[in-house]
Amino acid sequence: MCKALIAVVDDEEPIRKALQRLLRSAGFETVAFASGLEFLESLATVRPQCLVLDLHMPDMTGFQLLERLADTDKQIPVLILTGHDSDEIRDKALIWRPAAYLRKPVHDQTLLDALELALSQ
After folding, report:
1. What is the pTM of this model?
2. Most buried of 68, 85, 113, 114 (most Cβ within 10 A)?
3. Spatial separation of the C-alpha atoms in residues 72 and 64, rounded to whole Å
4. Which of 40, 43, 114 lies closest to 77, judged by CA?
5. What is the pLDDT of residue 2?
6. What is the per-residue pLDDT for 71?
């Protein structure tokens, strides 16, 4: 069985690399992007089955990326990761109906479980 391609969008390189290592160790293929714009441009040639998305990034926030994705025909389950959790941010994020809303640092198994659930729906 071919494992799913998971896209990681996070402006912090150490986090991107750590997430890629974790996902690869679990058997997933991964592709990582430092910005939402890079990710959107990749959709012309790359078709991930799930997106792991940081909310707080310069230039284009995760919220702005979610808005742009909503304007396309691409239906991609999203796992939101944030290091800036608050009731306001959580409420704003949940409007987009993510497959999961997780706080950094996230436990590896929690992320993998959320990913498996998102892919199964």
Report:
1. 0.95
2. 114
3. 13
4. 114
5. 63
6. 87
| pLDDT, tens only, 26-68 | 999 999 999 999 999 999 999 999 999 999 999 899 999 999 9
Q: Residues near 56 by Cβ (< 8 Å), separated by ≥ 6?
A: 62, 82, 83, 84
Mean pLDDT of 93-109: 95
Which residue type occupies 42? S
Residues, the chain, total?
Answer: 121
Task: Kindly report, residue by residue over 63-93, the tens digit of the pLDDT.
Answer: 999 999 998 877 899 999 999 899 999 999 9
**How is residue 24 written in tokens?**
């690869």
SS3 string, the chain, reads CCCCEEEEECCCHHHHHHHHHHHHHCCCEEEEECCHHHHHHHCCCCCCCEEEEECCCCCCCHHHHHHHHHCCCCCCCEEEEECCCCHHHHHHHHCCCCCEEEECCCCHHHHHHHHHHHHHC
Residue 86 near residue 69, CB atoms below 8 Å: no
CB burial of 89-103 (b: ≥16 within 10 Å; e: otherwise) equals beeebeebebbbbbe
